[in-house]
Structures are given as C-alpha cells and as structure tokens.
Amino acid sequence: MATTFKPDEAPPVVAVSWFERLRRGFFGSPFDAALTVLGLAVLYLVLTPLLEWAIFKAAWLGNGPEACPDKEAACWVFIRARGAQLVYGPYPPAERWRVDLVLALGIIGLVLMLVPRVPAKIWIGAVMLSAYPALVALLLAGGAFGLAPVDTADWGGLMLTLVVATWGIATSMPLGLVLALGRRSQMPVVRALSVAFIEFWRGVPLIAVLFMAATMFPLFMPAGATADKLLRALIAFSLFNAAYMAEVFRGGLQAVPVGQYEAARSLGLGYWRLMGLIVLPQAFRIAIPGLVNTCIGIFKETTLILVIGLFDLLAVIQAGIADPAWLIGDHVRETGYFFAGLGFWFFCFGMSRYSARLERRLSAGRATT
Questions:
Q1: Cα 230 to chain center, whole Å?
Q2: pTM of the entire predicted model
Q3: Would you kindly state where each structural domain of the chain is located, as residue ranges?
Q4: Please, what sign has the CA dihedral across residues 200, 202, 203, 208?
C-alpha cells in the first residue's frame, strides 16, 4: 500500500547508515571510486616510509648521540635532550616558572574565549588584549615586585615565538582597522596618510624591515640612547603587518552593502555609532578568513627574527643541530626540522579550525541574496 502524506506534514526522514554515507561519498560513481583508489595508493606510498622513519624505526630512549645509531630513522633523543632549550631558550632555569605561569594564564584565557557557554566574552577579550600583555611583559622581563630582571637577549625558543606572534597579532589588528577606516575616510589628509602608510609597508619585505630596525634605527637615536633589540623587532612586526590587516579590513568594509550605510544614516546615527553598531560587526564577519590567514602568516614570519640575532624555536633547533656532539648524521637535522614543522603546523592548523568554527557560528560562509 502506498503511503500518503498530508500537505502540511514534512516527509519522513530516512536514516542512512555510516557505511552507506561512506559508499556514496567515496564510491558513488566509477570516477569517484578511481579517485578514491588513487588517493589511497598515494597515501600508502607517502605515509608508509614516513611512519617507518618517524615512529617505528626511530630512536626514543637514551640521553646522548650514541642512542641514535640508525641514520635512516628519526632521532627523537635529540628533541628530548634539548627539550628545555626548545621551550625556554637561554632563559634562566631558576626563573622559568614565570614562563610557565604566563603560558598557563594564556591557555586559561584562550579556553574561556573558545568555550561557547562562557559569558562576558567581550570583557575576557578586552582583558586578554590589554592587561594580559602588560602582565606578560612584567613577568618575563622582571625588575619589579621582587622579580629578578631577565634581559630579552635571554628570551628564546617557543616562548619567544609565541611572544612575537601574539604581539604581532594583538597590535597589528587594531592598528590595521584604524588604517582601513582612515583609507576610506572623507578627509583627504587622513586618507592620503593612510594610503601612504599602507603602500609603503606593503612595498618592502619584512626581512628588510627587520634589518632596518636592528641596524639603522639606532643611528637615528640620540648619542648614548639605546633601544632593546626585541622591542625594535616587535614594533617592526606591528607596523609591517598592520598594513596587511588594513587591506583585509578594507575588503570587509567594502563588502557591506551600501544600503546598510544609508539605512543607518536615515536613522540619524553618527559616524562612530554607524561603524560600531552596524558596519564593523558585518565587516568583521566577512573578513574572518582573511584575518586568520594573515594571523597564520604572522606566526610563520616569526622565524625571520633569527636574522637579527634573536633565537626563536627554529633558531634554537638550528643551534642544537650545530652542536659538535650531535654532528652524527643528517637524521638529527631532519628530526629537528620535522619537529619544528610539526610545531608550526599544530598552531596554524588550530587557528584555521577556530576560524572555521567561528565562521559557522556567525554564518559568515552562508551565501546571501
């Protein structure tokens, strides 16, 4: 007997097993089946030797180079032996609890920002962008409240990578927003200055900016005055990446329909209320993919600080590889670079996944008509 439905009733939901979904997705047609088989073959050819090198034949136990006799396998003993330097660099061992505290507070703030049900996210974000950087500088540099001073030359490893990346993102984003608004301003002077700033910094490579900050900037300072090398690098990161953030924000602002501006003006909203209540929330939602892409680029650009004598995670690994005690074969160098690649991939992939989740929550990827 045929089943009949009333016009106001929804059709029944047909349950599909996971096996059927996989079959339809990977073997739904002969072409899909051929691509699936080809993909599996490529994965097998690539992953099999990689797993053999990185896991099954790798050296895991030991304390020195003698524990890595197999030159055709990874030497994770090198990573274990250099673990503290990879995280802290030359930071004084007795003061490393300060780095741990900074990292713990950062993780707590990040978790509070990521958990959907946590209230007052705006205030949490404001604290992370204002009070937290000041607390980080106080704890890591010391010199107050009984904390022993630690020169920035003793900062390094993963700690320095995170400091430079976090600073670059936290400062370039608001500065880039101001520049984007200035570039779209109706005041000719403000618009011209914003355009000049953006085009200048986008026209020079970051490595040249870092060299200028490290070598030429001190020449313009008064006699006897000095500026911390790390501080100069941080300022260079902020100015350079603000220009790219400005273009991302400008794209988001231009994507907001003109009718939104006109409707807000018809209600009597001034410029700042128009931007804060109507335009910027929409522009930010549209610009999320570009913003996260720029943030990922900033994180990877931190490796360039090696050229001015600052030792980030990659530089510490390179210094460890150059240790005469570990000059036992290419497998040590390969392991070090493989570990660095995994570390950078972990952070960059995490940012991309959070971006995708944020887009889904804000419906940024939904087509509008």
A1: 19
A2: 0.84
A3: 89-150, 171-362
A4: positive
| pLDDT tens across the length of the chain (369 residues) | 455 555 555 555 556 666 667 767 777 788 878 888 888 899 889 889 999 999 999 899 888 888 888 888 999 999 999 989 999 989 999 999 999 999 999 889 888 887 777 787 778 878 887 788 888 889 999 888 888 999 988 899 999 999 999 899 989 999 999 999 999 888 999 999 999 999 999 999 999 888 888 887 777 777 666 778 888 899 999 999 999 999 999 999 998 888 888 888 888 888 888 888 888 888 888 898 899 999 999 999 999 998 888 889 999 999 899 888 888 888 899 999 999 999 999 999 988 888 888 888 776 445 444
CATH topology for 171-362 is MetI-like fold (1.10.3720)
275-297 CB burial, b ≥16 within 10 A, e <16? beebbbebbbbbbbbbbbebbbe
Structure-token pair, residue 182? 């200035």
The C-alpha atoms of residue 158 and residue 63 are separated, in whole angstroms, by: 22
